[in-house]
Amino acid sequence: QVQLVESGGGLVQAGGSLRLSCAASGRARSSDYMGWFRQAPGKEREFVASSNWGGSTTDYANSVKGRFTASRDNAKSTVYLQMSSLKPEDTAVYYCAAGLAAPLTTRVDYWGQGTQVTVSS
């Protein structure tokens, strides 16, 4: 069954903002860690950001620190990625990820289907 569903991708000009959302269902709702990866054309999938269950611990790739913010609303079983000061190099398919018990940089148990983010220069 579907576990993670992303929304909010699209086309934005450089310097603009977007917010991605990811709604979890089923067992993914109880994931200790939820967050985001991205994959640009011709490149490997890379970690972007994550949040633990209570939101007290967040982790970011160096390339997005200070520009992106990950947050969770456990009542809605949803994780968000607020992206600001977007750059053309942020263009990628963004994937929601959930880890039941380990940080996402260690293990991902569920993946979303991906949402395209395109930043024009």
Describe this structure in words.
This protein is mainly beta and 121 residues long. 0% of the residues lie in helices and 50% in strands. It has strands at 4-7, 10-13, 18-24, 33-39, 46-52, 58-60, 68-73, 78-83, 92-99, 110-111, 115-120. Strand 5 and strand 6 form a beta hairpin. The model has no long low-confidence stretch (mean pLDDT 95).
Helix content: under 10%
Mean model confidence by pLDDT: 95
Gyration radius, rounded? 13 Å
Beta-strand segment tally: 11
Instruction: Give the number of helices.
Output: 0
Q: Spans with pLDDT under 50 lasting ≥5 residues?
A: none
User: N-to-C SSE series?
Assistant: EEEEEEEEEEE
- Main sheet attributes: strand count, strand direction, barrel closure: 7 strands, mixed
Distance between the termini: 39 Å
Q: What overall geometry do the principal axes of the alpha carbons give?
A: globular
β-sheet strand percentage: over 45%
**Class based on secondary structure composition and strand pairing:** mainly beta
List the helices and strands and how they pair.
Layout: E1 4-7, E2 10-13, E3 18-24, E4 33-39, E5 46-52, E6 58-60, E7 68-73, E8 78-83, E9 92-99, E10 110-111, E11 115-120
Parallel strand pairs: 2-11
Antiparallel strand pairs: 1-3, 3-8, 4-5, 4-9, 5-6, 7-8, 9-10, 9-11
